[in-house]
Amino acid sequence: MIRTYLNYFCLLFLAAACQQQELQQPVFDRSPEDRLDPRRKEAPYPQIEIPEGVDMESARWKGIDLTPTAPVIPLSPLEEQKTFRLREGYRMDPVLAEPHIQEPAAIQFDGNGRMYVLELRTYMQDIDATGELMPAGRISRWEDKDEDGIYETGVVFLDSLVFPRFVVPFGPNTILSMESNEDHVYKYSDTDGDGKADTKELFATGLGRSGNVEHQTSFLTWTMDNWMYSTYNSRRIRWTPEGVLQEPTGNPYGQWGVTQDNYGQVWFQDGAGGVPQNFNFPIVYGNFRIPGQFQDGFREPFSLVKLADFEPGMRETKPDGSLNNVTGAAGNDVFRGDRLPPELVNQYFYGEPVGRIVRQVRSDKTEGLTYIQNAYRDQETEFIQSTDPLFRPVDMATAPDGTMYIVDMYRGIIQEGNWTQEGSYLRTKIQQYQMDDIVGNGRIWRVSHEEHPRSTEKPRMFEESSEELLLHLSHPNGWWRDKAQQLLILRQDRSIVPKLEEMARNHESELARLHALWTLEGLSALKASLVREWLADSNPRLRIHGMRAGETLYKYGDKTLEADYRKSLNDPDPQVAVQALLSAHVLDFEEVEPLLQQALSTNPAKGIQTVAQQILDRRADARERAASKYTASERILFDQGKSIFDSYCATCHGVKGLGTPTGADGGELIAPGFSGSPRIQGHPEYAVKTLLHGLTGSIEGKEYEGVMIAMGENTNEWIASVVSYIRNDFGNQASFVSPDYVAQIRDATREREGNYSHEALVAEVPKQLFPKDNWQVSASSTALQGVGSTRDPSYAFGFKGWKTEEEQKEGMWFQLVLPQPKKLAEIQFDAGKEQYPGAYSIEVSTNGTDWTEVAHGTGEAGSNVLRWELPTAVSHLRLMLKEPRNQVWAMKNLTLYAR
Length: 899
Fold this sequence. Notes:
The protein has 899 residues and is of the alpha+beta class.
């Protein structure tokens, strides 16, 4: 441990000593191998032992090979370059590498073409994630001043960050960023021109998360519609001269990656799920289930690395030791440049760092829906492969020079510490190849093609006039178009509105017209007359964007556009008609549901049928929820929990709580489903402790791909909301959980270290006692429950229920005697809207004579719960009424728990 901390702080010292760097010569021939312990190269290599208690017949471990093996040795960039397997005519060249950058995770370019690098310098510096939240992250900025294609001049723009989440260039010498476990986005600016940020202003709030660093907000991205989207947020934000706006959206199901295509469709990159998300329709319209959107075989990667070193273990290993199912993804880009072959333009790319591949995705559109496939599936290969186990592609971007850049974290461990704990399969494999100390590296690569040399045009947008920026809206490279639009909006220079209108109407480039339209929208200069012209255009793409941009005018009061939208519902192009449905829904036209029903009955296109039916279902669900039985406090918990579940949990546990299919054939689940689960509907301590401390290993003999990581960094209200929601949706019905209860469990388990196993957790959780014939149940008063029934107080344990024959009186009681003493811990019961008890106490006894009060409460409509701790077992329990109400006392579904 001492060596670990010394190494860690040496890295911090070296980092602090390199605040400004200028490379006189390329350093791509230097190998990080020199920093490693030389004994790594020596045989005999260490024997790796199976962790104690491992079931070698389980799917995760069965067939594992832990033969003493030569360690993985890091290569220099030029050596790594030889390991890439590329399509004919392509090449990858390094443009920046360690030691000048370390642990790069994302890049962005500003208006002058300078490259900002997000450096996660504390990420997994050892196998236990030591120091992960130390303030040593940074954002550096790099330039290619001699125009040789290598970024040789750099400055640390922003330093001493706690695991920064993103970098967004935001005008001259300004960026937006946010740290981990923060809720605020800040604007950082360099006001004195020295290349380092010297001011910090609050930009937006409410976008952050806490918990595991892989499960927090990332990749805030400004898109064509002038809104910014990020992962893990069911909202979007927008800068305006009056302030930053926020709007609710669907749930992105993204983890590390947000990008857009030439037509403004935003794509989110899932992490553990390994696939793109929400690429059919803009997320502002909500989430849609598209059966078959991932075509057969999409989930199978074709990797050249055969170490079987991935978290799911042998269950997702091909016979040759390579990965058989995408299990981790990071970074994405729709290539929109002009210096690679044209067949790559508007194609989606993303990295699978566990498989050491970069995948190109082909999109097939049918009847208004998009279906995707690995572009090289038929050839059983990928766009980029590597034989180097340390190649970790975590981001990619269309660059100002018209090519594509790949961010390579180049390291041994790519999974966060929650997945590398003691006894885990992954930890065992990492140690077998001694990959845990390969840290502090990082490379950025340029992907180019022999027939398309990179552009040497140097962006100088910060020094250009608005009219000069206007010309870039027709640039063949989408990066130039995007950046010019953003800068024009930030300037808010309305003097160019007439020229923008001319471009939007008459420019020969379809894409230039699109950017002109949205620049007008961003300047608050869009007119309804122009929208109507677009809605009548022969180009269906322009008709779609006319509707989307026109929504802003409608929201701000121009309801005259509604007639035009209604007319578009009958458009012969299914994509246009689908957009009309989406707009009518989000704008909430009067009698929108009959419009949806009419579309269902008259238009058989799959897109129409899918969107119309799911919007109708969503609206019906919203009505039902609004009129539900929950109390006001329960409603708050439920709604908060649903938002969190949809943003965090649905990726693994499924949108409908049925689990997310995975595996080569989709026949397995990433995580267990919640619908009907006795574990979830049983005692809430199970779910609360799982969220607080995590859960690993098989569950009731069944293994899952995922590991439930600890979420204890979140607030008590956050955890209470999630648990309450999953216990009361997906067909489940159980008691709600209060933040105070979570606080009690947190305090009682504060000393716990590491995840629970299922067996250990079950052993701690109170067990439900099921009524038996030898239970003695009595009450001071019991009413007849219908004609021919008996006065049986044991009805309280079922749906039929028990109630008193008369109104409540002080001293009324309900009593239970067990045949054997138990360490009773909790009682639950349901009560109606009126017939719930007033104040009451819980008393226990070992002999029925000497009673001790252990808890007290006041009844309420709905679910009632009281909990306590007993040092010894008791056989007698009674509820004693202390303060009566002017109603009978009734209870049903009475449940008793004991430890």
